[in-house]
């Protein structure tokens, strides 16, 4: 019915503890986690409004591909296949340094490691950056 | 109630260190002389207090009030060691003790 | 304590009881329900403080059919009183299980460990304001020094709105601090000292001195000290004791509706 769920803020790499207010399965709001060692009960304005994007009607819930000039919802399989094809096409014409990889502060260390590993070992480029300026 | 509200605001301003810059008077439209007297008196009082210190935190454009970073031309009013001006900065006060 | 909560749940007096429980190594607020009576034994008192009454009022706004009980410290109790006189919740709509632990001058108890004095660095003490000062100690300083110290504190503001968001008695749908005509909304940093003074004035007759705003402030602005002065003024000038009873009307600076104290004639 009503739950308070501890979690970690997904905005930047700091990793502040947050507490989500959930009523009947719907996210109502965010509170700072008072005893969390990182933020000690404090949050920035983005952390305080963490719940907003989850319920936002503008949130993308499925990948979109531009077909005939209009975005169309597609499955993840199709989106990934499409991206891989395009990557291969560009790389076969211009070499691996013609593509780049943007990692994220919102994902885990391990995921970030995998992205750079994929860029360097599989694709063969050092074009890796991340969104610390988020 | 206006009287009490004004006292509330006056005391809040005084607590902030902005005391003496607020005044409440009842002046009828027939009391021209009282109006002149009150305005002249208060003008003198305000002048004696010096410029409004909030102005020291305002950019030249007058638009933004905030940190020095937001308006690079204004000196930092808190950290400036030099030229204390009419308002002693606390650091200078601490050194003088 | 546990038996009382179980009793409330089992007799149907409440559907949800908001208390605290250790979860994932943290003392967290938790909604205890009838479906899991064993869990009630795990209820603890603290040490963390969350605005449980604010959570309760939020739940009731979405689900008016529910009956809610909360574990209430003195500050929760006072906040609930303020919310009740402001008609955010009907009297008795939220069941209260009281625990005493409060050092605020609004209460006589003095054994709350959640508001222990924090230590601050030398820099803040020299050019800013030590959050542990009392209004009297601050008033002993020169006005120019006081102003400069307040401005130092206010200028640190990140405009996170945390003080408002955590505040148990900030229930307005529309907030002056987000009003385009009153405070520039998109600009950072906020306009000082107006931003903080507007909030201070709005805390008149509402602030119940729980200190959650100061706890939530990422830059340690001595908000409790400021609102404590506001509260002193409200008590001295208007004879209004915030949150101490359900009988008084809501306090208002803007309208004449506050009940006149018996000694009003010589004051006016």
Description:
- The complex is a heterotrimer of chains A (134), B (97) and C (268).
- Chain A folds into 2 domains: 2-55, ADC-like domains (N-terminal domain of TfIIb); 95-134, no CATH class.
- Chain A contains 4 helices and 7 strands.
- Chain A is α+β, with helices and mostly antiparallel strands and 134 residues long.
- The longest helix of chain A has 19 residues, at 76-94.
- Chain B has a domain at 23-78.
- Chain B is an all-alpha fold.
- Chain B has helices at residues 2-16, 32-49, 90-96.
- Chain C is α/β, with parallel strands linked by helices.
- In chain C, 35% of the residues lie in helices and 10% in strands.
- Chain C is built from 11 helices and 5 strands, in the order αβββαβαβαααααααα.
- In chain C, strands 1, 2, 3, 4 and 5 form a 5-stranded mixed sheet that branches.
- Chains in contact: A-C, B-C.
- Chain B binds chain C through residues 1, 3-5, 7-9, 11-12, 14-19, 53-54, 57, 64-67, 70, 77-79, 87-91, 93-94, and chain C through 126-127, 135, 138-139, 142-152, 155, 187-194, 197, 200-201, 204, 226, 229-230, 233-234, 237-238, 253, 256, 267-268.
